[in-house]
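# nightly structure sweep
# worker-07 picked up a monomer target from the shared queue
# config: single-sequence mode, recycle default, output format = structure tokens
# input follows
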Amino acid sequence: MAALFGELGAIFGAGAMGAKYGEDPAETRRQWALGLMGFSDAEIERGVQACRVRGGDWPPTLPVFRGMCRPYRQLFEHGMQQMARQDLPMLPHEQAPRWATPAQYWALRSIWTRACAASNYDAIAALWQHAYDQQCARRDLPPVPPPQRYLPPAGKASSGEAARQALSTVREILNKSNKFGYS
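# output follows
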């Protein structure tokens, strides 16, 4: 916390830091340490960078700084775009999704059905923030799986016979279920 408060002091000035947190600096640092528990160094650096960009005369409150470290809405919107790229067929020349962190992927995966059904971000914000914080706190977080490439690279497509065989299998399944009246 000393390093963080040193950086904030350099950005906002000792006077602003003292005026805002002067009552009990030790208790303030303790509360910030508790409030930022589970945040990575990269997330805290994101918050410090946001303070530099934002500027102003006063340092942020702890809740505002947490939001700067983990910009939930931006992570959610970015994640929704990446998830579509993760799950949809990709052409060989298309770029794979780029996730901010594995926690972003796994949090969104855990609420994907609800996220797709939500009418807007505000409808899902609390659930998303909880899911993201849970994933950030995990110590055993697996890496993001590679996206599925359903479309073969150019020149590597299946033969016509393989396609006919696959179509035949699909027809057999449909005929057995007879749900669609396919013949």
